Amino acid sequence: MTLAMSHAPGKTSGSMTGTGARLNLHRYAAWAIIALIVVVQVYPLLWILLTALRPAQEFAAGDAFALPSSLTLDNFVRAFAQGNLGRFLFNSIIVTVAADALIVLLGMMAAYAIQVIGFKWSRVVLGLFLIGIIVPAHVTLVPLFLNYRNLGLLNSYWSIIVPLVGFSLPMSVYLFQSFYSYISRELYDAATIDGAGPYRIFLLITAPMSVNTVVTVVFVNTIFIWNDFIFANTFVLDKNMKTVPLGLQSYMGAMGSIDWTATFAAVCVTVTPLLLALLVLNRAIIYGIQGGATKG
Amino acid sequence: MLTYRNRLAVAVFLAPPLLAYLVAVVLPIGQSLYLSLFKWDGLSDPRFIGLGNYSKMLTADPAFWASLLHSLVYLVITLIFQLGLALLVANLLTYAGKGREVIKTLVVLPAIVSTVAIALLFRRLYAFDPPGLINDLLSWVGLGALARPWLSDLSTVMSAVSIPEGWRFFGIYMLILYGGLLAVPRDLEEAAKLDGANEWQVFLFVRFPYLRPVWITTAIMATTYALRGFDVPYLLTNGGPGQASELLTTYMYKTAFANTNFGYASALSVAIVVECLIAVGAILLLVRRRGFSV
Predict the structure, then answer these.
(1) Is the pLDDT of residue B119 over 60?
(2) Which end of chain B is more exposed for a tag (fewer CB within 10 A), N or C?
(3) Which CATH code is given to the segment(s) A84-295?
(4) Rounded CA separation B162/B233 (Å)
């Protein structure tokens, strides 16, 4: 999903703890509920990891929710061997890198034209982009399917990249545009006096200053692109072109016995890149989400 | 006029993004509106039927109304998590002190997991034979009589397909609301407490009124996302059993890609857009009528 994230890490969390003993009871109750919620949010994910590390026979024998008696990496070996997992990861990486690059580049360009250069109808064009934020993807599926069929683009990387870029551009344009509105005019005026034109200003001033926004846009969209199911499921049927979500689904789709432990091993592999990104960029992301709605 | 502000540069920078947006989003919307006026199976010649698809949808298709109702149930259940429970926990988190930073990261984790993996996970959690976690827990606390196949029981399937959606984005909305609560001026709260207000009254009369703009933004986000919900119900039950968990989105998808009824599917997709617009409009109207400022 896309979110209105802000760039700067927001205000640091001030302590709301008051004084007096009557707060103690509240605090215990608060902790109990919070602990329960954390368990509900985290335990299922932990269970996926434990299942991926559990011997397959033990999972099949019942007690799937007890602690594993021993840990094994066999499931990961089978996940790669059976499921074409390497191919799915390769496809997803291509789609994600290409779509992210386009979303950032096109978003910056549109925001630069709208906010920095400026023109008569710039607010109208911005509005046209912003409408895209609330358009449900479903309304474009049938026409895109038919257009791709006519152009022979079904089962191609482009068939997924195009709608992913189209639907992510509105938020990207919005974030870059609101960031550019804070860059001082005098900076541009000075550069102009030094003889820089619109292209050099873009390359040497505006683009390099956008790094924080680029990180936000890339992270949010990587989650959205990496996990996209609906576009890939609609436009890609060829086994060799499947992305990670479709690949995972093929573990589930088969009738009869499903190799659950290998399936959850595959889930662990595919979620790892996003998990690492979340842990590395932790503070920026958490404060980004936290500050998003108050500033937006 | 500064030299960098010229028309050619506007065209150079604006044309590529605008073109991508038009091709991927704007043009297909127009095509959907146009296609919705035809009866077409994708192979034979399209037949123009005017507003025929819409009149069929509104007057002669019980499945449309049933799936619209299911979409609203799905919306309500998701909002209970993403607006209700999220607000409660965000408020409690302000009392938490140490450990807050870790909690904030942990609750966001489900949001990065793909819907396919979530569907796989919940299929195991809801399993009946062998019992999944939920049925296990029920018999463990002595409520074994309540155990059931959650996804094939007609009375529980709607809740069962809605809860994963509420669950996975709960953390995101909780964090947004928490950010809003941090912006409440501390001295206002202290003043209320000096006047004898308890924690509940502080929340109701100081914090919530202050939070309202953030809460409304969150409501609009959560509502439009929930009305677009598709992946989890599609993957868990594919609308079944029968059409007991059919949402407007899964109904439209099947009409298009299983029955290749492209004209009618386009009319249904237009209905999804209208549904989202009405929902956002209704929230804003409600807000205005009660005199809140957004």
Answers:
(1) yes
(2) N
(3) 1.10.3720.10
(4) 7
